[in-house]
Design a protein that fits this description.
By secondary structure, the chain is α/β, with parallel strands linked by helices. It has nine helices and seven strands; from the N terminus they run H-H-H-E-H-E-H-E-E-H-E-H-E-H-H-E. 45% of the residues lie in helices and 18% in strands.
């Protein structure tokens, strides 16, 4: 299934005003379990981060994590990088409209981009599964970081990531170039790029996988079938959302022995 057309459809619905876009961010933060994990890690990092930290967001997306980081500390200087000009223009327009002068998006290919200004932290959420030359990206991340800097990555695992559970299964997201990483694989690649310390753990464990199916997989399948299904989603979510919130909370606060997602932190020392 191609995921990008659905993302563009959602963006066109919620991008009419800054208010609706912020409301969309709230929905994403509630629905997406990875957002729960990422925001938890960002809060932990913020406790010891420099007050004027420079941050790179590797992959623009809708910009919801940049919005969150700019609220954590308005003094943060944040640069978002994306390979698509439309995403760059869209995010720049939005953050300018809400007065975020320390946020800037630029056009860039992560396989080639090295920051002129070393970053204190690089955030990379659900990007690496789209890039074939991942080792080159990790090398560029290392070169773009300050000493003591950290890269925070969210990506599918090889334990059913991209909804692939066997060799004959097709990825749920057609744009993925790999179904997922093993912890040992991504750790080895990051260490080869120069990172001396790598920590990784599973997300989307037993509870999270159920939540993902209820909150994301089934609604996306409905929308992919017909755009008219947008009309029934409010009713659907009003029923399943309480269960998804409980499942997300359990996943974030449980040490998963396996899971379809990975949260990875790598440090430059």
């Amino acid at each position: 299934m191609e995921y990008d057309p659905i993302k563009h459809s959602l963006g066109s619905v919620f991008n009419t005003t800054p208010f609706f876009r912020k409301f969309f961010y709230v929905l994403l933060d509630i629905l997406l379990l990875r957002a729960w994990h990422i925001k938890k890690e960002l809060r932990k990092w913020n406790k010891t981060a420099p007050s004027n930290a420079h941050i790179l967001d590797a992959g623009a997306g809708f910009g919801q994590y940049v919005q969150y980081m700019s609220r954590l500390n308005p003094s943060f200087s944040i640069v978002g990088i994306d390979v698509k000009q439309t995403q760059v223009d869209d995010c720049n327009t939005f953050f300018t409209s809400i007065g975020k002068t320390k946020v800037q998006y630029i056009l860039g290919d992560l396989t080639q981009y090295i920051s002129n200004k070393p970053a204190d932290m690089i955030l990379c959420v659900d990007v690496m599964e789209h890039i074939l030359e991942d080792t080159k990206v990790f090398e560029n991340f290392y070169a773009s970081l300050q000493n003591q800097g950290m890269v925070l990555i969210s990506t599918p695992s090889d334990q059913g990531g991209s909804d692939v559970h066997g060799e004959h299964d097709e990825s749920f997201v057609g744009e993925h170039v790999r179904d997922g990483y093993s912890i040992s694989d991504i750790t080895q690649k990051l260490q080869s790029a120069g990172f001396s310390k790598v920590e990784a753990y599973y997300s989307y464990g037993t509870f999270g996988k159920i939540s993902w199916k209820l909150s994301m997989k089934y609604p996306i399948l409905l929308i992919n079938f017909s755009k008219l299904c947008f009309l029934i989603l409010p009713i659907y979510y009003s029923i399943v959302m309480p269960f998804c919130l409980i499942l997300n909370a359990l996943d974030v606060n449980t040490k998963n022995t396996t899971g379809t997602g990975l949260i990875v932190k790598a440090y430059k020392e």
